[in-house]
Amino acid sequence: MPHILVNKHKDIATPSNYDDVAFQFIAKSSKENKVLVETENKKFFLNMKEKNNNILVKIDNITRISPVSIVKNAINAYGKISGSKILFENTSNLSKKVEPKKEFLKDIEYFVNDFKTDKEILVEVGFGSGRYLIHQALKNPDKLIIGLEIHTPSIEQMLKQVNIQGITNILAINYDARLFLEFLESNSVNTIFVHFPVPWDKKPHRRVMSVDFIQESLRALKPNGTLELRTDSPNYFEYSSQLLEHFKKFPSKILKNKDLEVISKYETRWKKQEKDIWDVIITSTVEDKILDIKADFSFDTNINIKNLDLPNKPVVKKDFLVHFENVLTIEDYGILIQLTMGSFNKPISKYIIVANGKASYFQGNPIPTSANLKAHKLIKSFLQENKCEQ
Ligand SMILES: C[S@@+](CC[C@H](N)C(=O)[O-])C[C@H]1O[C@@H](n2cnc3c(N)ncnc32)[C@H](O)[C@@H]1O
After folding, report:
1. Strand (E) positions, the chain?
2. CB within 8 A of 245, min separation 6: which ones?
C-alpha cells in the first residue's frame, strides 16, 4: 500500500494544486483527517493519521482507485505541498512499470449508468492471475468478457497482459461479484465462471456461492446460459451441491476431474498435488423479468448539520442495516459522513458529503440493490429529521 510518513505540519491550504493534483478540502475528526483529491478524472481521499508524533499519509481504503500510479502521484504531491520532511516513502517507483490500459478497467458507476453492448457476454468471478479470463478473450474475440476481482494487484497484473497481448474485449472491475450480479441486466449473460473461489471454511457467509448468488446469476443469464463453478475444495463442492437443492427445476450437472483447455495458477498447484477437482454447472432455462429497481438515491435539501444526531450504533432492520461510523467536519460549512449500509453479508462502505445544506454520496451513488435502496431511505430520514424549518 503506497504511503509516506512526514513530519507534523500545518494543514495544507485548500483548494490548492500541485503537479495536476487538486486538493479540494480537508475533513477532520479526532481519529484522522482526510483530504479530498481530484486528479486524472478521479476523486478519492487521502488519510492523514498521526503515528508516533509524525503523519502517515495513504489512500482512504473506502475510496480506493486504480491504477496505483495515480495514488502514488497524489501522495507525492501532498508531500510536496505540505512542505514537510519526508521520513519514509514507497511512492517513488512510478514510471518504470508498464501501466495497464485504463480503458479496460471500469468503475461501478460505468456499469450502473453507461454500460451497453450488443455483444454476447461472458463473466468471470474472481479471475486472480487472469489466465482463464485472457484465454476466454482470445478464444472469443467477438464476445465481451467481464472480469470481476477484488484484489487490486491481480487486476493490474491481468491488465498488463491485456496490454501486451493487444486484447480489446475485456472489461475488468474491482468489485464484489455478489453485489455486481444483483444489478446486472436480466437475460444478458451467456456464461458465468466461478473458478476456485476462496472456500472460506471458517466464514461461510463470505463465500461467493449462495442461494442469492445462484438466483441472481440465473436471472442475469440468458436461457441456456450457464453458471459454472470449479473447485478443488471437497467442502465447497459439497456445499454448492447442496445449494442446487434450491434450484431443482433448473438442469444441473457435476463433473469430476474434467480437463480444461487452460489451467489457472491455482489449478496447476492442485494438479501437482493430485487433488480432485469438481465442476458444478447449472443452466438457466427461462426468460426472467426485467429488473425494475427505482434507483432514487437523492436527499432533501436544506439539511441542517448543526442539529445532526446520528445513531452511533448499527441500526439493524429485517433485511438491511445502516451504521454511521464516523462524522468528520469540513470547515464550517459541511460534514463528511462515513457509513456502512445494505445487506448483512455484503454491506458497502460509503461517504456522504453534506455541504451547504445539500447531501450526496461520494464517488457516486450506491449500486441499486434493494437492500441499498432501503438503507438509503433510512439514511435520508435521519438527515431529514434535522432539516431546517423554512
Ligand atoms: C483462489 S483465487 C482463484 C483465482 C482464479 N480464478 C484461479 O483459478 O486461479 C480466488 C479469487 O477470487 C477473488 N474473490 C474473492 N471473493 C470475491 C468476490 N466477492 N468478488 C470478486 N472476486 C472475489 C479473490 O481476490 C481471488 O483472486
Report:
1. 3-7, 16-18, 21-28, 33-39, 42-51, 54-59, 86-89, 105-106, 121-125, 144-149, 170-174, 189-195, 221-231, 252-256, 278-283, 315-316, 321-330, 334-342, 348-355, 358-361
2. none
- Enumerate the domain spans of the chain: 3-88, 102-283, 305-384
Q: Is the peptide bond before 141 cis (omega within 30 degrees of 0)?
A: no
Architecture of the domain delimited by 102-283: 3-Layer(aba) Sandwich (3.40)
Q: Please give the grid coordinates belonging to residue 61.
A: 481504503
Lookup result for grid cell 493487444:
166
Pick from 133, 149, 192 the residue to mutate for probing ligand 1's pocket: most ligand atoms within 8 Å of its CB.
Answer: 149
pTM score > 0.85 for this model?
A: no
The helix (H) or strand (E) run that includes residue 369 is: none
Q: Locate the ligand 1 atom nearest the alpha carbon of residue 193 and give its number.
A: 6
The sign of the dihedral angle between the CA atoms of 66, 69, 73, 75 is positive
The number of residues making up the chain comes to 390
pLDDT per residue of the chain (390 residues) written in tens, 0 to 9? 899 999 999 999 999 999 999 999 999 999 899 999 999 989 999 999 999 999 999 999 999 887 788 999 999 999 999 999 999 999 987 654 555 566 899 988 889 888 999 999 999 999 999 999 999 999 999 999 999 999 988 998 999 999 999 999 999 999 999 999 988 999 999 999 999 999 999 998 899 999 999 999 999 999 999 999 999 999 999 999 999 999 999 999 999 999 998 988 788 888 888 899 999 999 999 999 888 767 899 999 889 998 888 999 999 999 999 999 999 999 989 999 999 999 988 899 999 999 999 999 999 999 888 899 999 999 999 998 654 443
Q: Whose CA is nearest to atom 18 of ligand 1?
A: 176
**Whole-angstrom Cα distance, residue 128 to residue 195?**
9
Indicate left, alpha or beta for 220 from its phi (over 0: left) and psi (-120 to 50: alpha).
alpha
Task: Report CA-CA distances (Å) from 375 to 131, 318, 319, 338.
Answer: 38, 11, 9, 14
CA nearest ligand 1 atom 10, residue: 197
3 state SS of 101: coil
